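Risk register update: the risk that structure generation would not scale has been downgraded. Supporting records follow, first protein first.
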Amino acid sequence: MTYGAEMVRPDLDHLPESPLPAGLVVRTARREEYRKVFEADTEAFQDHWGFIPPAEEDFERWLGEPTTDPDLWQVAWDGDQVAGNVLNFINEKENLEYNRKRGYTEGISVRRPWRRRGLARALLTRSLQMFKDMGMQEAALGVDSQNLNGALNLYESVGFRVVRREVVYRKRF
């Protein structure tokens, strides 16, 4: 069992400045690099509660999801290696249904060698600025509130607030 939370940043005003750590660059992933992004994200989450290694069909399914939009991703590179990423998306159908302009900052991950240097914060604030520039008015994400890397505190520090809590169970087979 773990505890999850849905978090919302209700506006995109007064965004904190968070510089990218030295030696890293953020650029759009090319199609041939999507697998690197997927594998880096998988590696970063391997020690999280409920982790199950993905199968090949999971990669294909991930690419085919309607909300997968690599043009919105914020991917930090150290040479040809993915250091971390935020796999942003916009759910247009949901925004129309609820009459809002919300972007999602999901898939926030940093690989171990680049942790504790401010990379997740930098990628997250870049994501929020991108959404603001696109005309979005708020951002949301989901988090395991018992995340080993203190994700909940990070998200609160950039203006996200918990709007819903849930208990997550896993049945053992």
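Supporting record for the second protein:
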Amino acid sequence: MKQSSKTALGGIVAALSISMMFSISIVPFFTYAVPAAAAVMLVPIVIEINKKWALGVYLCVSLLGLILVPNKEVAVIYAAFFGYYPILKAFIEKQMKFVAEWIVKIFIFNLSMSVSYYVMLRFMGIRIDEMETLGALAIPILLGAGSVAFVLYDYAVSKIIVLYIQKFQKRFRKMFR
């Protein structure tokens, strides 16, 4: 793939990702779905170009999201985990066996979410409504539910990757020759 095609693809993915994050202002119910969906757009870059290029696009989207997107929770969630997850997923699945891979993935997810919410609660003034109703139990309940949702997300991303390779990769490569 030519340098100009790589740059164009990176720009398109970045613009679409930022646009998706802006959409949360219109439909505020998808706080976790939007950064997860925006991250899936990195899949063609990981597959067609390389992980380093995808990392550059992730950093660009993260920085622009933190600066421009009005809903900072969405931008932080993208930057803290979902944005780099397609890159991390490719690396982990190539390097590890099935059980170790899942232990590492779930650990990284929980660590990332814990740190990002600590930062949002402590420094950004974002509140978690469940903390008021459930108290100290809110954190393990939310992390447990989040881990289940993450496993489903990982499975969905794997299926999207297979779908991309089987149905869209040939057309995609023709477009960006």
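The radius of gyration is 17 Å. On this basis the risk owner (M.S.) recommends closing the item.
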